[in-house]
Design brief:
By secondary structure, this protein is an alpha+beta fold. The chain has three helices and four strands. It has a four-stranded antiparallel β-sheet.
Length: 153
């Protein structure tokens, strides 16, 4: 019941928004906006809905995620980036199980964070993502400071 409530809330919150990467099949510009973001008194977050390509395992996707996290750390950012498997119901039985193809990713960063400058290592982690997955949707949002990851407070 909690899972259903979570997804219902996510749909309600996201419904009036236009996704920034709707229909994209790559991650090339999914996390970077060229225009300045509106003011945020908390931290920004990018929430992505990702679809694993056929034959891709969670471990393969997690290698791309680890390279993504490492790029930000190596460039002295304090961003918090992680992924979570989606729980879905099996057709027929109705049993809950982890999806073998859908992942939600979260990327939190401070409003004062400098705009990332792409380099060869950036291109390498993006390629890992595009080799293993397709970006279904991407949403930027402002998270109130009381809900921000502790390391960003």
């Amino acid at each position: 019941m909690k899972v259903r409530s979570f997804f219902a809330a996510l749909v309600m919150i996201s419904a009036p928004l236009t996704p920034l990467a709707f229909g994209q099949s790559s991650h090339s510009s999914a996390g970077v906006l060229d225009a300045p973001l509106p003011a945020c008194s908390g931290v920004y977050s990018i929430v992505r809905i990702v679809d694993l390509k056929p034959g891709t395992t969670i471990d393969q996707y997690n290698a791309a995620l680890a390279a993504h996290q490492a790029w930000y750390k190596q460039h002295s950012y304090d961003d918090v980036i992680y992924a979570a498997q989606v729980i879905e119901r099996e057709e027929g039985s109705g049993h809950a199980r982890y999806s073998k193809h859908l992942i939600l990713t979260y990327h939190f960063f401070k409003p004062t964070s400098p705009h990332p400058t792409k380099d060869a290592a950036w291109d390498a982690f993006v390629k890992l993502y595009t080799d293993t997955s397709d970006l279904k949707e991407s949403y930027f949002n402002c998270v109130p400071m009381e809900h921000a990851p502790h390391s960003l407070k």
